[in-house]
Design brief:
Shape: elongated
Structural class: mainly alpha
CATH architecture of one domain: Alpha Horseshoe
CATH class of one domain: Mainly Alpha
Number of strands: 0
Order of helices and strands: HHHHHHHH
CATH topology of one domain: Serine Threonine Protein Phosphatase 5, Tetratricopeptide repeat
Helix content: 55-70%
Number of helices: 8
Radius of gyration: 25 Å
Distance between the termini: 82 Å
């Protein structure tokens, strides 16, 4: 009878503990919910993402997509150069994201200006300036 009691106590104690997740999401779910309720809280959401990233410098337990999401927020704010390192971090910690991160990195580099000769040729071929903008 005494062994049963000890066994039941151990089972109850382990069954009531909170499960440990693979990744440390911090307050991500609550902060994302707050952003969806009030889009004006984008800066606060970005800060919370940055805190999650900074709390995992070695990348262990860093959730997938957090670095990419923070980089996208930086792009949205017009801070293209600052977004690049976060896309690189996403590639480093999550190699399966390499293809899409390479595309995001390419989008951060300034595009070369279109020459006026090319614009005139496209404009003459298309017959309208609206079509010219769509082609370029």
């Amino acid at each position: 009878m005494k062994k049963w009691t000890i066994l039941m106590a151990v089972l109850l104690a382990t069954g009531c503990s909170t499960p440990k997740t693979t990744y440390d999401w911090g307050r991500h779910d609550q902060d994302l919910f707050n952003l969806m309720k009030d889009p004006g809280k984008l800066e606060a959401y970005g800060l919370s993402l940055r805190q999650i990233i900074d709390s995992h410098p070695d990348g262990k337990r860093l959730p997938p997509g957090i670095c990419a999401e923070y980089g996208y927020i930086l792009i949205s704010a017009g801070r293209l150069g600052e977004a690049l390192p976060y896309f690189e971090l996403e590639k480093k910690f999550w190699p399966e994201s390499t293809h899409i991160m390479d595309r995001m990195i390419a989008n951060c580099h300034p595009k070369p200006a279109v020459s006026t000769e090319k614009t005139a040729t496209v404009n003459a071929l298309s017959g309208s300036s609206i079509a010219q903008k769509e082609v370029l």
